[in-house]
Specification:
three-stranded mixed β-sheet, 36% helix, 5 strands, 9% strand, single chain, two-stranded parallel sheet
Length: 244
C-alpha cells in the first residue's frame, strides 16, 4: 500500500474539502429529505449504528432512516422488503440515504473512499487476511462498492477491500469517486434490499422474538428494530441489507 505521510495528509485534505463542500451545497437537499422523512415516517430521521473503523475502533455512523420499526410478530430479519418504506426505497436506490455519512468524514471517522464499515459482530469471523480491511479508514464508497456493489457476495467484497488496501493511491481514490458518481447517476448494481442468501454470509439463528443470541451477530437488514437513541436517531442492531 502506497501510504506515505504526504499522500495520506492530502487524502485527508480531500476528505475535508469534499465533505465540507458537499454538506454545504447539499444542505437544501438534506433539509428536504429530513422534512419528507418526518412527514412520511415520523421521528427519528437518522439511523445511527456503531461500526468498526480503522483498526476496529468503534464509531457511530449516520444514515437517513429508510425502514419502519417491526410490528408485533415481525422478525427483525426476513421482513426488510415489507419494512422498507416507499421513500426509503427511493433513498436507497439513489444512494441519498448515505449522505449523512459526510458528517462522519468531517469528524475523521470515515473517508470519502475506503472499505465500507460493516457490523462489529463480524470482526471475530474475519480471516487474518480479511481483517486487514481495517488497516485503513472506512469509506462512504469503495473499490468493492464500484465493482458489484449490492450484487457481490460477502466474501467477494472482503477480497476487494483487501485489494484496495494493498493498492491504495490517490489516483485510485479519484478513480473510485468518478466511478461512484457514474453508478449513482445510472443507478447501476443497486439493490434496495438483499436477502441473507444473496449476502452469502453465515449467520446464527435468532432467539424467539428476533434478537441475536448473546455473543452472536444479528441478522443483516434489521434497521428500525431498536428504540430511538439519544438525539432522536434510531439505534438498531444492524443497518442495512448490505450490512454497511
Amino acid at each position: 500500500m502506497t501510504q506515505g505521510k504526504s499522500a495520506l495528509a492530502l487524502k485527508r485534505c480531500i476528505d475535508l474539502a469534499g465533505a465540507g463542500t458537499g454538506l454545504l451545497l447539499l444542505a437544501p437537499l438534506l433539509l428536504a429529505i429530513s422534512t419528507a422523512l418526518l412527514a412520511t415516517q415520523g421521528s427519528p430521521v437518522f439511523f445511527r449504528h456503531v461500526r468498526p473503523g480503522r483498526h476496529g475502533k468503534p464509531f457511530q455512523m449516520f444514515k437517513f432512516r429508510t425502514m419502519r420499526t417491526p410490528r408485533a410478530g415481525e422478525a427483525m430479519y426476513g421482513t426488510d422488503e415489507d419494512r422498507l418504506t416507499r421513500l426509503g426505497r427511493f433513498l436507497r436506490s439513489t444512494s441519498l440515504d448515505e449522505l449523512p455519512e459526510l458528517w462522519n468524514v468531517l469528524r475523521g471517522e470515515m473517508s470519502l473512499v475506503g472499505p465500507r464499515p460493516l457490523l462489529e459482530e463480524y470482526l471475530d469471523t474475519y480471516t487474518p487476511v480479511a481483517r486487514r480491511r481495517h488497516d485503513v479508514v472506512p469509506g462512504v464508497t469503495g473499490w468493492a462498492a464500484v465493482n458489484g456493489r449490492h450484487v457481490l457476495k460477502f466474501k467477494e467484497r472482503l477480497a476487494l477491500d483487501v485489494w484496495y488496501v494493498d493498492h491504495w493511491s490517490l489516483w485510485l481514490d479519484l478513480r473510485i469517486l468518478a466511478m461512484t458518481l457514474y453508478q449513482v447517476l445510472v443507478r447501476k448494481d443497486v439493490a434496495a434490499v438483499q436477502s441473507i442468501e444473496e449476502i452469502g454470509f453465515p449467520l446464527p439463528a435468532l432467539r424467539p422474538g428476533g434478537t441475536a443470541r448473546q455473543g452472536e451477530p444479528p441478522r443483516p437488514g434489521d434497521e428500525g428494530a431498536g428504540a430511538p437513541g439519544p438525539g432522536g436517531a434510531a439505534k438498531d442492531p444492524a443497518g442495512s441489507a448490505e450490512a454497511t
